[in-house]
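Structural prep section.
Before we set up the soaks we want a predicted structure of the protein with flavin-adenine dinucleotide in place, mainly to decide which crystallisation condition to try first. Input record follows.
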Amino acid sequence: MEGIRHTRHGWWLEEAGAVTPTRPLESDTSADVVIVGGGYLGLWTAWHLLVLEPGIEIALLEAAVCGHGPSGRNGGFCETLWGDVETLRERAGDAAALAVCRASEDAVRGIGDWCRDNEADAWYRPAPMLRVATTESQLGSWDGSVKACTALGADDEIVPLSREEVRARCDSPLFLGGSAQRLNATVQPARLGLGLRRRLLERGLRLYERTEVTRLHRDGSVETRLGRVRAGSAVLAVNSAAVGFPGYRLSLAVASSHIVLTEPVPDVLEDLGWTGGEAIVDSRTLVHYMRTTADDRIAFGWGGGTMGFGSRGGSRLELDAGVIRRSRESLVRFFPQLRGRRVTHAWGGPIDVSPTHLPIFGSRGRVHHGFGFTGNGVGPTYLGGQILARLALDRRDERTSLAIVEPARKLFPPEPFKYVGGSLIRQALLRKDATEDEGRTPDAVTAFVAALPHRLGLHLPR
Ligand SMILES: Cc1cc2nc3c(=O)[nH]c(=O)nc-3n(C[C@H](O)[C@H](O)[C@H](O)COP(=O)(O)OP(=O)(O)OC[C@H]3O[C@@H](n4cnc5c(N)ncnc54)[C@H](O)[C@@H]3O)c2cc1C
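Run finished without errors. Recording the tokens verbatim:
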């Protein structure tokens, strides 16, 4: 596609500016806690460890450069877990669901406070998140969440919006109605990750970049090609790469999501009335998600990318010309004013899909893990960092007793079934969404296969 800069790392990281990687680990060392992975989860864990225990010795090992994975490339929707309130009630009951949702609100506010207190300009902008319907079949898909909020005495968390109310916030001809999730923000994701990296280095974090961990031991020590770290406990914060570590292979599946970005289009945003900074998702299973930026661009993403096989990432999880072409076509369908305007950048990355759509935290011996953010990790990794810091220090409190810590186990089927089954379901979802976009009803086989995850109690990324 001519004119588009289609790269692995994407525009946010370009905009945030290059960083010089630290020295890799070159010999054996020791620390109180070793953190594996320098995305938001590993970085927030380090931050919260320093809050709880200011003198603590932390070694953080990152295979590439901190914040250059999905944490620096995502859509920048900084969400709570209210969108999962129904699943939380089903799995854990009302009081536990409410506790998780409230803790996830603290995380969204906590990120804003952190940016302010640490003078990190990550473009943190609070504004409600809209879930919209773009087909008749999507109308009312938020009813269950609205009812669940009401049942928990939290009526104002997710409220239904009429077609006119949605269009007053963003006048896409496709929007037929929707709901608004009260507490939400958007960020420039790379500025957040790199800002956190900078502040941690200033506070004395021992960071070893370009250092891949090859083995984890239950006693908390970890191995790399050139050295071993002995530690009181280890934190595994490697996102979808967790499937490559024994014991975690069936805990998550790997999908992908991709984003296209327009040139600055202030006149189009004005025309759409989309000037309030709202993050917007449609109500498909393989969602479209869209937001504006501080310099008046539109970032438009689609969760319709390919699946990963086992622990093999595969380059199409990051660079997929077919998905980018389709995303670009959808962008113009959503916003016809963009016809003739330039799409300047495109990129993508892997998504760590949990079987329940909820993140999972827990411990195996002295190794503590977090993964399964399923496309909603910007806000929840802050909470995850609070949880993992406590687990690593063996301090139990209300954060470690949340229902997302050591939840009842649910696994994906083994390979090749996970990949083959996942890919078949993905194809069926693509067909179902395309048919419904044309105002038609999907055929019986497509509808049956597309409904399988729901029947099996598995939730795919929104
Ligand atoms: C295109 C896209 C759009 C998204 N949009 C949103 C959104 O709008 N809102 C939202 O909330 N979420 C979104 N997400 C998801 C979000 O980015 C993730 O949930 C979040 O970044 C997870 O943070 P993390 O620290 O767990 O993972 P990562 O950012 O992936 O960090 C893990 C790190 O571990 C390192 N690593 C891996 N293996 C090893 C090893 N063996 N040794 C050492 N280091 C290792 C990696 O190099 C990486 O830096 C999106 C994701 C993608 C790809």
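Observations: The chain has a mean pLDDT of 93.
Flagged for discussion at group meeting.
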